[in-house]
Amino acid sequence: GGADAIDPNFKIPTIIRSNFGFTHHFDFGGDGFFDNWTWQGDVIYSRGRNSIDFVDVSLFQTGTAIDGRPIFSYVDPTRTGCDAVRHGVRGGWTNVNLATCLTGTSPQGARDSIVLTNALQGDRSWILSTALSRDFDLDAMFGHDAAFNVNVGYAYTDAKDSEPGTSSVSTSNFRNIATSNINAFALATSNYENRHNITATFTYREKFIKELTSRFTFYFSARSGQPYSLSFNNGNAFGENATTRRALLYIPTGPSDPKVVFGPSFDQAAFFAFLHQIGADKYAGQIAPRNAFRSDWFTNLDFRFQQELPKFFGVQPAFYADIENLPNLISNRANVLRQVSFPYAANVVGLANASNPGSGAYTYTSFNLGGAAQNINFDAS
Q1: Helix, strand or coil for residue 334?
Q2: Cβ distance 157 to 194 under 8 Å?
Q3: Disulfide: which of 100, 120, 222, 234 matches 198 by Cβ 3.0-4.6 Å?
Q4: Cα radius of gyration (the chain)
């Protein structure tokens, strides 16, 4: 049966982080529009030490696919006539008798022997952010306490990991990641990288009632879409017995690519139009990298009204009302978050010769545009 283990040399993950920040106040000697702004900037670099990884130690490479990726089978060293020897977590197998040791893609004994270990490459991220803010004093205009505050910001994030660690059990941690090598995850764009993030807050405050401040605040945000991968719609395409469709897609150079044979019902026109639409054609002749594509941007606007109330035994109470996702209150078509669903792999191509493609050409049997559907995230929408 399946087994979970921890590498005896496993080290607890840590993060080394460095930060540089600055603040500058603009003062041109007057009270013009460009005076009294505050500019802030930050650069944060994080590097993972001993980041986590998961390895299935029962897998053994038996071949190489036409695009260069490895093909695996399972080794069961308890089978009669099998004297295979495992050399540590990443040392692989020796003395594997292909006739007696391999269990194929439907193993009974050695399936899912997953070990928690440390990644070969640590996670890393760069974050660059900047913000501008200012209070505009409107006392003179209204003859009493009034002001308008502006705060706008932008953050750019470049985050990479080899194992997102999204789950509570080993099998889903091992399987819920798109890859071209099911037993050696490469450093790639993180599932949770928000590449671009824009925020803005606008607050108007005034004392309509003596000594009691009213505030009207709008909170705006916009962020680039969730990263996702293109994958084959086949769970055991390269030797792994898994239900997750996570084998990264090979992008053909065109209809005459010698590495691909298109089945009679495959919609080539729609397929190549889709690749062009999302920018995947730049990877023509290659395996598309993990998380190389993005769902749509998402924008949001919230509103808060806050009113101070008369003091009560020295306490200043306040009443407030929030409207979250204000545009969606106006139109149910506005501010809807759509993204490729977890585990963020769009399984768009059916692969016929899945169990052992070997060095022969792939057979693409079907194109499923629905596999790349951006589904509604109801909580955020």
Answers
A1: coil
A2: yes
A3: 222
A4: 28
pLDDT tens digits along 156-212: 999 999 999 888 888 889 988 999 998 889 999 999 999 999 999 999 999 888 889
Quickly list DSSP for 12-24.
--EEEEEEEEEEE
Instruction: Look at residue 142 in the predicted model and tell me its pLDDT.
Output: 65
Q: How far is 106 from 104, CA to CA, in rounded Å?
A: 6
**pLDDT: which is higher, 170 or 320:** 320
pLDDT tens digits, one per residue of 251-310: 999 999 999 999 999 999 999 999 999 999 999 999 999 999 999 999 999 999 999 999
What is d(CA 369, CA 347) in angstroms, rounded to the nearest whole number?
A: 9
Q: Are 229 and 186 in contact (CB under 8 A)?
A: no
DSSP state letter for 49: E
Nearest residue to 51 (alpha-carbon basis) of 5, 12, 4: 12
Percentages helix, strand, coil for the chain, rounded to the nearest 5? 10, 45, 45
pLDDT, residue 175, reads 87
Alpha-carbon gap, residue 229 to 185, rounded angstroms: 14
Reported as a single tens digit per residue, the pLDDT across 119-161 is 999 999 999 999 999 998 887 666 677 899 999 999 999 999 9
Q: Which residues contact 358 (CB under 8 A, 6 or more apart)?
A: 63, 64, 65, 66, 71
Cα separation of 149 and 137, whole Å?
Answer: 9
Residue with tokens 């928000």: 194
Residue 21 has pLDDT above 50, yes or no: yes
**Is 110's pLDDT higher than 50?**
no
- C-alpha 249/C-alpha 69 separation (Å) is 11
d(CA 268, CA 282): 17
C-alpha 279/C-alpha 286 separation (Å) is: 13
- Letter string b/e over residues 324-333, b meaning 16 or more CB atoms within 10 A of that residue's CB: ebbbbeeeee
Are the CB atoms for 89 and 119 separated by under 8 Å? no
18 vs 23: CA distance, rounded Å? 17
Are the C-beta atoms of 225 and 197 separated by less than 8 Å? Answer: no
